[in-house]
Amino acid sequence: MIPTSTDPSTVAEAAAILRAGRLCAFATETVYGLGADATNADAVLSIYETKGRPRFNPLIIHCADLAMAETVAEFSPFARKVAALWPASLTLVLPARPNNGLADVATAGLDTVAIRIPDHPIALDLIRAVGRPLAAPSANPSGRLSPTTADQVRQGFGGRVPVLDGGPCQAGVESTILRIQGERLVQLRAGAVAREEVERALGVEVAVAAGDAAIAAPGMLASHYAPNAQMRLNSGPREEEAYLAFGAAPQFAGIVRNLSPSGDLREAARNLFSMLHELDAMGVGTIAVAPIPDEGLGEAINDRLRRAAAPRG
Ligand code: AMP
Ligand code: MG
Fold it and tell me: For residue 116, is it within any domain?
């Protein structure tokens, strides 16, 4: 029997679930989000497991107000002008603030972060009550339609995820994503707020990301996280290489980081981005990577490793 979860009946109950590192779906004005504390790597990894998402892509970080947003990203004066449109179905991609506390798996190890202040009173109350930014991709199993009612969320996940019901979503489509580059705006994803609406409100032109860049969210680009080192996957280490191990590692005299000595995929996912960055920062020529089982979170780990190893264009 599928264990069914009890839905929170108040914002405070939902906030308690999220603060405890568990998932809770909630209404926003776009679609229902599958919420997790964005500062808690385990909570964010549960999003991937629950959705059955086969790859790590950077998630939108939902904030309650500008003060919270400023703790995770750097705002230029121009960015502040654009942010004055919040709360809105508008996501802004900004430089991440160093040591912002966000889990690597929430931003896919990028040095930029996509942020939004949703235009929904219950969502805002919830984020405020949690007191931390929330990662919240659409609350549907991977590959299925985004839910716009609490019942659709319950059906999609077979009742396994608690839902804070906030009524049907007004917009019913995902947020518009804009990247801020200097004083320019580039639309990465069309969504609930029309480009022209932003142009009219700000008196600034909004360019459209060319061809593939628009569809190919950064998490999808083949070499999106490209280490300087060469990567050799599914193997043991050779002399002069650094080794990213998983499980029981072979004897090796060189530099080794172990994603999970006990062979736990969740622990490996938690360590993936930081260990890759760490080994790459040592300036080694090649990072050899142990085979990782292609099941559960292993699928997303392998996807990310293949992208890191892909030839760069
Ligand atoms: P969601 O699944 O609703 O959280 O939306 C995630 C999408 O936001 C990704 O697929 C990207 O298109 C976009 N996104 C998130 N972070 C970034 C970023 N740092 N740079 C560009 N786009 C981003
Ligand atoms: Mg979705």
Answer: yes
How far apart, in whole angstroms, are the C-alpha atoms of residue 235 and residue 248?
Answer: 13
Q: Is the CB of 112 under 6 A from ligand 1?
A: yes
- Residue 90 in tokens: 């508008």
Per-residue pLDDT at 215: 42
CATH of the domain at 43: 3.90.870.10
pLDDT for position 226: 72
CB 93 less than 6 A from any atom of ligand 1: yes
Q: From the CB of 219, is ligand 1 less than 6 Å away? A: yes
With a 6 A CB cut-off, is 217 part of the ligand 1 pocket? yes
Task: Tell me which ligand sits closest to the C-alpha of residue 175.
Answer: 1
Taken in order 69, 71, 74, 80, the sign of the CA dihedral is: positive
**What is the position in ligand 1's atom list of the atom closest to the CA of 179?**
21
Q: Which domain holds residue 72?
A: 11-172
CA terminus-to-terminus distance, the chain: 49
pLDDT for 229: 92
58 CB within 6 A, ligand 1 = yes
58 Cα–ligand 1 center, Å: 5
Distances (CA, A) of 73 to 95, 113, 157: 6, 7, 32
Picking from 172, 202, 220, the residue at the C-terminal end of a domain is 172
Residue located via tokens 């699928």:
299
Residue 253: what are its φ and ψ, rounded to 5°?
-80, -20
Query: What CATH number corresponds to the domain at position 239?
Result: 3.40.50.11030
Residue 7 contacts residue 25 (beta carbons within 8 Å): no
DSSP 73: B
Rounded to the nearest angstrom, the distance between the alpha carbon of 34 and the centre of ligand 2 is 10
- 309 Cβ inside 6 Å of ligand 1: no
Instruction: Tokens for 149, please give them.
Output: 């009612």
Ligand 1 atom 3, closest CA: 137
pLDDT tens readout for residues 205-241: 999 987 655 444 554 454 456 788 999 999 999 999 9
